[in-house]
């Protein structure tokens, strides 16, 4: 199975399966001298892990990181950084009935057809648990970026409920990570009602990048929008990607587009302008519903747990683009 790595100068390789012994990541290309220890990963891993609210799976994983290499006396050495998280709450028996019964909406049938074998324990490599590696790499990527860059993700929409306000200080105060404190309770109620019916719901995650450095992106095929789209769409739950005005751009006149700087989303000609980025991802409803949901531990809404994952993927893309820009401009490592 190829294509488990992402990035050019800041390269991320993930490994592990949902119910395997551990999941992990190797980050290559991180500059030396950056302060880093295992505790640095804990806050972001806590945001991603299951069992944290009424909107997520009941699976309990502490997700304690073990830093294996690339750091000496609290500083990165420039060598590859390897981090693992051991799996603790394994219940492969929950999936035994699915050994010969691929689940609808999952990668079960496509993996079996492509490789001739599949790990039926929660999807194996195709499981959303693989995103542990991305979140760990995202923590390191944030440290590579210039100070002042802020990456803020939130639930813009869950089902029919669309946020109208953006108050970032409230995002972590509710179970669905909505930045609209007035709407968040309605989102939570909607998810709880669906959980009771063993159904699920999708939504839209918005990621805003404040303090984006200018000149990131490499035309023609590695435009910043292209690498961001690649990163976002590599996340299993993401069904669509847009930036700036998104698909609403199709309804605008040229005069309207030109008059609204935010419509371009901080990217022109595939290169960052230095303005804030606005990135959007459509998140599908979880495929494990009905009888499958009754027999296991599943998320009625994936949206809240996807937020830190997409923040991490944004950081990884920007860190790689930042290092590429500096290298090609002859500026060296930051």
Structure, briefly:
The chain has 334 residues and is an alpha+beta fold. It has helices at residues 42-48, 108-115, 131-144, 184-196, 224-233, 254-259, 290-295, 303-328, and strands spanning 5-6, 11-16, 22-28, 65-69, 71-72, 75-76, 81-86, 150-158, 161-162, 203-210, 238-243, 267-268, 271-272, 277-283. The chain has one domain (5-328): Chorismate synthase AroC (Chorismate synthase, AroC fold, 4-Layer Sandwich).
Any key phrases for this structure?
globular; five-stranded antiparallel sheet; 27% helix; 334 residues; single chain; Chorismate synthase, AroC fold; alpha+beta
CATH topology: Chorismate synthase, AroC fold
What is the CATH homology-level superfamily?
Chorismate synthase AroC
- Tell me, briefly, the overall form: globular
Following the backbone from N to C, one meets helices and strands in this order, namely EEEHEEEEHHEEHEHEHEEEHH
What class do helices, strands and sheet pairing give? alpha+beta
The CATH architecture is 4-Layer Sandwich
What is the total tally of β strands? Answer: 14
User: What's the structural domain tally?
Assistant: 1
Strand portion, in percent? Answer: 15-25%
How would you write the strand order of the largest sheet? Answer: 1-2-3-7-4
């Amino acid at each position: 199975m190829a294509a488990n790595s992402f990035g050019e100068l800041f390269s991320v390789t993930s490994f592990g399966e949902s119910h395997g012994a551990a999941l992990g990541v190797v980050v290559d290309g991180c500059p030396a001298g950056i302060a880093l220890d295992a505790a640095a990963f804990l806050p972001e891993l806590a945001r991603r892990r299951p069992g944290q609210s009424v909107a997520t799976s009941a699976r309990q994983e502490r997700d304690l990181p073990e830093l294996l290499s690339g750091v000496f006396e609290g500083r990165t050495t420039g060598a590859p950084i390897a981090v693992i998280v051991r799996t603790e709450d394994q219940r492969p028996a929950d999936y035994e009935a699915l050994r010969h019964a691929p689940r609808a909406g999952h990668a079960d049938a496509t993996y079996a057809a492509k490789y001739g074998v599949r790990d039926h324990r929660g999807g194996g490599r195709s499981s959303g648990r693989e995103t542990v590696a991305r979140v760990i790499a995202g923590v390191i990527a944030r440290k590579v970026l210039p100070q002042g860059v802020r990456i803020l993700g939130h639930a813009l929409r869950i089902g029919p409920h669309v946020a109208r306000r953006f108050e970032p200080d409230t995002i972590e105060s509710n179970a669905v990570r909505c930045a609209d404190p007035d709407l968040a309770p309605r989102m939570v109620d909607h998810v709880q009602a669906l959980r009771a019916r063993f159904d699920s719901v999708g939504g839209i995650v918005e990621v805003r990048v404040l303090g984006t450095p200018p000149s990131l992106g490499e035309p023609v095929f590695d435009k910043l929008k292209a690498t961001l789209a690649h990163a976002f769409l590599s996340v299993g739950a993401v069904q669509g990607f847009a930036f700036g005005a998104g698909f609403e751009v199709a309804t605008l006149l040229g005069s309207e587009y030109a008059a609204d700087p935010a419509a371009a989303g901080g990217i022109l000609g595939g290169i960052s302008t230095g303005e804030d980025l606005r990135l959007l991802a459509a998140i599908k409803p979880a495929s494990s519903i009905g009888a499958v949901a009754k027999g296991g531990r599943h998320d009625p809404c994936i949206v809240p747990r996807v937020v830190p994952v997409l923040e991490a993927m944004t950081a990884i893309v920007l860190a790689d683009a930042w290092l590429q820009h500096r290298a090609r401009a002859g500026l060296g490592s930051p």
